[in-house]
Structures are given as structure tokens and as C-alpha cells.
Write a structure and sequence with these properties.
homodimer; Arc Repressor Mutant, subunit A; Enolase-like, domain 1; 48% helix; elongated; DNA-binding
DNA sequence: TTTAGCACTCTAAGATTGCGAGTGCTAATT
DNA sequence: AATTAGCACTCGCAATCTTAGAGTGCTAAA
């Protein structure tokens, strides 16, 4: 199956994909022969195309149209044929202006996402996974609500706030809650959320024997607070911008497809799962078409990159657009943006 | 201009609109004559249609198609011709099950919005205007962030939390902020937000002469906190659900229109303004097509109603869908939902 | 291995046609 | 005076056909 692909065939595939990305039209043998710079006749090209078709790299919409790349063809293209063109000085400068580390993490993520969308004219996205280790707890506080519900407020990372409502077995007075919060603050402030969730609470519980009643209850509350958001990927840590730009693309002019896509955007779930997969790899990663196994993304590709500080992955950002996109431009944009974001975060640390 | 419309013409208009809403097809004179139950010939109907056309109530897409209602025709229909059909017992019961007053205000609004969307198969929306008087302050708290920024946390109404970041002239210690918060709490807790914003802070400031430095600064902070969200309608108090359902309608299969609509949904601004206008009127209100002067809503109508407790308007809810919608069904749904929500809120008060 | 040549296929875009639906007008009817 | 029947006419839609163009696959020659 994995037959070798000759240099010439690769060259042809490259030119074909480039041409198709530019024009959106199937590419015929004559055009290809002319544009390839290989001094071949159309007939030879035709033979080569027959081979590529057999390998599943290209296909023709019908007998007498040219060829278009298959997902597999795109894959080979981005993996080994693509020549990216780096951003110009000017563009990088412009980006520097746009991306300031103002406001809360949410706001920052939103501005980056919008930036990506604007630059690529597709949809931009930024994810801050809850598992990001780099968020340390700054303060915790409880407040009684009606009934047996308590509002827990976490301040994270000097910037972000997260509210969680938990339910408890009985009414607690403000004073009691104050006490509980004081205890937890003394134990937990300055710790990484990740550690709190996975180690510290357990340790506390194990040594609880020596503690007062109230402290034990404090631990129980804290467990609720920290467990809850971990179970379901919370929606607030994902920002998507410029979805409507996707409506402009011909390959998505099919209302049914579009609807599926937008429903997926609303759910977020599925897309988040995909992005989770990107957390491991580093550098720019690309999903082409339904490689993801996620059928609504049929005609779409995602280009993503993680961003990090001190070697720790903090999140994923990227864009989503039609499979037929200008990869050689989109890839550096995503790449550089990720680096800029990393730098901005490192600085504001 | 305002010629009288005879009883018969009204009847015909009514049947025409009903028929068009059902079928989506222009209605011809023969059909109309048959369905009207008026024992008229097609020719007579034709004359009547010519009159209605002159009055701007109907129009024909082309010479030899039937007539379709204009926006003005729809307007007359919903204003004086419509016979609503009340919901069945069963449907009301089902609604009761669906609408619980669980969770925060946000969550509640979201569930209502989704309910509306499901019932009508269009998009549902719920708005909680910031000016709602019925929200009383339960607690205020300050927390230092980096730089000179302070996080203010408001707990409102036993249920909702709102975070605001304010900027101050210098660094404050936790103890100082504690003090400021204590003071503000003693003065403000239990008051209505509306009053705080419009009266109380002013009064405090006027009597400030006798106060310590710190208290004065506390007031300044509070002013920032309470003013900020009032200036721009905050986005968090508006929930829209089921937008994608709108993609199913033929009249919105035009990608351009759809895109405009979804962009409007993302901005929210424009729609919020529209909804603001509904705050005054009571009962069910209807915007037809571009009556709103908002061109992206060209082919859409909004059906809204306010909900209230103790005679105070708390917010607006409603649906948005194609102008050609089943008003006789949608109107009671929106109406009853608003009443149920009012009841649920009154109860959980 | 490459190329020229050729028959063949398929689509997209126009042109042509007929049908059905519905109109407006006029003259007859009530 | 209002209503109706009758009729010529208009228009859109769908079906059918045609044509031009693009591109292919195959074969045989270079």
C-alpha cells in the first residue's frame, strides 16, 4: 500500500494543491504541466496523476474535470511539501501592538482569539485548559447563600475569579465560613491548582484526625469546590471568535453542513476534546478534514499551537477554517501568535 | 391613505395570512375563495385583493403568482385578526416540569431560553436588564490584585455573583480593603442595586466630611464598581439559545442574510437595544420584520413579553424567528412562559 | 519512459418548449 | 351597484435539448 512517491510526483502534488487552494477549481493536466516548471507534457502529467489517484492523494469530481486533493493529499502537502512564508516585520510589529496583556485572562484570551480571526479571516480560538498547572491559588472565600448552598469564590493567578456554588449538609454562619476560609487560605494560598486538586487535599484529609470539627468540614467543602470543575470541562475556558466568517466560504455554503458546524460550536464539547489532544504535541499541529473522526468538521481544518511559559503548556490556540485554506500563511500566523502569547504571559507573570 | 378596510376584506386577509403561514406559498384567488368560507367567487376575491394590495397589505412576487402578506399585512393580522389558541393543559404541565428555579440567575435564564427555543423551534432569548430594581445587594468584598487593580465581588440576590476589576490610585493592603468593605457592607447590604447606584452613594458622599480618610476612599471605590456596569449593557445578562434552528428556515437560506443575523447575535448590542424598548410595554409585544429599523431582522419577527414580580418588570423574554411564523401558537407560549417565570421568581424570592 | 493524437465523457450554460397557476379586464347577471 | 363568468394574457417553473469546453484514458509512435 505504502508505495513510494517519486520526487516528480511530489512536485506535481505540491503544485496541484497550491493551485487548487488558490483557485478552488479542479486542476487539469495541461495547467499542471505548464505551472509545474518541470517541462513535461500534459500526457505525462496525466500518467502521474493516475498514480497519485491510485495512492489516494487526489481525486476527480467527475470524469472530465481536473483533480483535487483528497484529505490524504492535503496531509502529505502540509507534512512534507509545504513551504511556509514567514511573516513580514511589519505584520509582527502590528501583532505586538494588538496583543497586550491587559485585563483578565478571559479578556486576554478573547482579544487573541479575535486577532487570529482577523488575520486569517477564519474563526479563531483560544483554550485555557483547566488542568493548566500554572494557575496558583491566591485566595479562597465562602459566602452563605439561601438554603444550604454556599458560594465559593476562588481568586486565581492575580487575575481571574471563579465562582462555584456548593451544597452542604446544614446551614453555616458567616463566622463559621470565615473560619473555614481562613484555615484553607493558610494551607492553600500560593499552591498550584493542580497540586491542590491532586495531592494537597488528600494529604490534609489524611492528617485530619488531629483537627477540629470545623477544619474537617472546611476540607470537605474544598473538595467539592476543586472537584466540581474538573469533572466537566468548564465552558468558560474556551473562546471562539469570528465564526460567522466561515459563512463566507463556498465549501460551507451548504446550509446543512453549516448548521452542524455551528451546533458543534455551541456545544463546544467535541471541539474541546479535539483540542485536548493537541496538548501533548508541541509546535503547530494540524487537523485535516475528518481526520479527527469528528464528522461536522468534514470540510474543515484546524491549525493549532500550544503556548507555554517555562516549558509548561498553558493552553492551546489556533484557527478553524475550510480545508482549502492558505496553510503557508495560516501556519506562521498561528505559530507566531502562540509565541507572542507565551512571551506576553511570561512577562506579566 | 387610511382608507377603511371592510369586514370582508379583513376576513380575506386573515385567511390569506393563515394560509401563507401554513404553506409558505403565495395564495391565489381561487384557493382563497374556497377556504374563506365566504361563498364568493374567485373574481370577487380578486377585486378585494387588488384593494388590499393598494393599501399595502399584500403583494405578489410576480404577475401570475398569488398574494403574500407584506409586513404591514402581518401587522394588521397580529393586531386585530389573530385568534390565538391557548396551550393545552398538558403543555402547561410539561412546562411546569421544565422550568425549575434551580441554580443561579444565569442558569435559570439559560434553561428558560432553551425551553422557549424547543417549544417554538426557533431561537429563544431571555434578558435580565441591569436596571432591574429587584436585585438587592447581599455582600461586597474587595481583594487586591497585582498593580493597582482591585477585584470587587458583589453578591446579589442570594444567587448571583458579579466580579468587577477597578483601578485605584495606590496599593492597598488586605487589611485596608477589609475595612473599606466592612464599612460599605454596613451601609449598603440589603439595599436595592438601583437605589445604591442612584441615591445612596450620592448621599454618602455628601455626608463624607465627618468620615475618616479610609471611608472616603471606600466610597470612591464603590462608585467605580457600581457605575461601570451601568454604562455599557453588560453581555452577561442576555441569553440566546437555539440560534441554529433558524438555519432550518427557507426564508433564511440566503447565506448573506444568515450571516448578518448571526453577526447581530454575536454583537448582541443591537438586539439588546430593541429589547430595551419592550421594557415599557406590558403583555406580549411583537416586532415584525424591519419595523425595528434594524435591517438584519428583515425577514424575522420577535415575540417578546416582560416578566415581573410585584408589578416590577424584571426582564424580557421571547423568541426570534422568521416573519412567517405560527403566531397563534408562539404568542401563547411566550405569554405563558413569562407568567410561569414571574411565578417561579415570586416563589423563590 | 515520454509524448502526440484521438475518441470519449461529462458538465455547465443557454435556448426552447409546454404547462399550470393566477391575474386583470370586460361584459353579463343579479 | 355589487357580483360573477369568461377570456386573453403573463409569468415562472420544470423538462428537454443543444452546444462548447475542458479534461480524461488509451494506444501507438518516438
Amino acid at each position: 500500500m505504502a508505495e513510494e512517491i517519486g520526487d516528480r510526483a511530489q512536485r506535481l502534488l505540491k503544485v496541484l494543491v497550491e493551485s487548487y487552494i488558490r483557485s478552488g477549481q479542479p486542476v487539469g493536466s495541461r495547467t499542471l504541466a505548464r505551472d509545474s516548471g518541470l517541462d513535461l507534457s500534459a500526457a505525462t502529467v496525466r500518467n502521474a496523476m493516475a498514480d497519485l489517484e491510485e495512492l489516494g492523494m487526489v481525486s476527480s469530481p467527475h470524469t472530465s474535470a481536473g483533480r483535487i486533493p483528497t484529505n490524504r493529499g492535503y496531509r502529505m502537502f502540509v507534512d512534507s511539501l509545504l513551504t511556509v512564508k514567514p511573516l513580514s516585520e511589519r505584520e509582527i510589529l502590528a501583532m505586538n501592538g494588538q496583543i497586550g496583556s491587559e485585563g483578565t485572562g478571559q479578556e486576554f484570551a478573547a482579544s487573541v482569539s479575535e486577532y487570529l480571526s482577523e488575520m486569517t479571516e477564519m474563526a479563531g480560538m483560544v483554550m485555557i485548559p483547566r488542568t493548566a498547572k500554572r494557575s496558583s491559588l491566591r485566595h479562597i472565600e465562602f459566602m452563605p447563600l439561601s438554603d444550604r448552598r454556599i458560594l465559593a469564590i476562588l481568586v486565581i493567578n492575580e487575575k481571574d475569579v471563579q465562582n462555584t456554588v456548593i451544597k452542604v449538609d446544614r446551614q453555616y454562619s458567616t463566622a463559621e465560613l470565615q473560619q473555614a476560609a481562613n484555615y484553607l487560605n493558610s494551607e492553600l494560598v500560593g499552591q498550584e491548582l493542580y497540586d491542590v486538586r491532586h495531592h494537597i487535599l488528600k494529604e490534609l484529609r489524611e492528617t485530619k484526625d488531629g483537627l477540629e470539627q470545623m477544619m474537617q468540614q472546611a476540607i470537605t467543602m474544598a473538595e467539592q469546590v476543586f472537584e466540581q470543575p474538573g469533572s466537566k470541562p468548564d465552558r468558560d475556558d474556551f473562546v471562539l471568535s469570528g465564526q460567522t466568517r466561515l459563512m463566507g466560504f463556498e465549501e460551507l455554503s451548504n446550509i446543512e453542513k453549516l448548521r452542524g458546524l455551528f451546533e458543534a460550536f455551541n456545544e463546544k464539547q467535541g471541539i474541546l476534546q479535539l483540542l485536548d489532544q493537541c496538548l501533548d504535541g508541541d509546535g503547530v499541529q494540524i487537523f485535516i478534514g475528518d481526520e479527527s473522526g469528528y464528522s461536522v468538521l468534514d470540510e474543515c481544518s484546524m491549525v493549532t499551537s500550544s503556548y507555554h511559559v517555562d516549558g509548561e503548556v498553558l493552553g492551546i490556540l489556533g484557527v478553524i477554517g475550510p480545508t482549502r485554506m492558505a496553510y503557508e500563511r495560516v501556519i506562521p500566523i498561528v505559530d507566531v501568535t502562540a509565541k507572542m502569547v507565551s512571551a506576553a504571559l511570561a512577562q506579566s507573570k
